[in-house]
Amino acid sequence: MADGNSKPPSVSQSGQIDHVMHEHRLFAPSAEFSARAMIGSVEQYEDLYDQAKTNPEKFWGEIARAELHWF
Predict the structure, then answer these.
(1) Nearest CA to 28 among 37, 20, 19, 15?
(2) Rounded to whole angstroms, what are the CA distances from 56 to 25, 59, 67, 71?
(3) For residue 6, pLDDT beyond 90
(4) Which residue in 7, 10, 11, 5 sits closest to 21, CA to CA?
(5) Per-residue pLDDT at 3
(6) Strand, helix or coil at 54?
(7) Residue 20: how many other CB atoms lie within 10 Å
(8) pLDDT at 51 over 50
């Protein structure tokens, strides 16, 4: 930081968080959490995204019929 251009690290050498403004760590979900997820992979997410983008009325209509209780 002596040159005035460097940003301070968000995690110190000891692993302690110095501040949260520049937090870049990633925390993977537990295996148990992942096993219960409705979307199990990036590929599944991208497929759903493509379906929604290509035909939003059909996509959301199918979701509504499957997931909403209509009365």
Answers:
(1) 37
(2) 34, 5, 16, 23
(3) no
(4) 10
(5) 47
(6) helix
(7) 7
(8) yes
Q: What percent of the chain has pLDDT over 70?
A: 76
Looking at residue 55, the DSSP 8-state letter turns out to be -
- Residue 68 tokens, joined: 């909403």
CA distance 40 to 46: 11
Q: Tokens for 66? A: 């499957």
Per the document, the length of the chain is: 71
For the CA atoms of 35, 38, 40, 46, the dihedral, rounded to the nearest 10 degrees, stands at: -170
Backbone angles phi, psi at 15, to 5 degrees: 90, -5
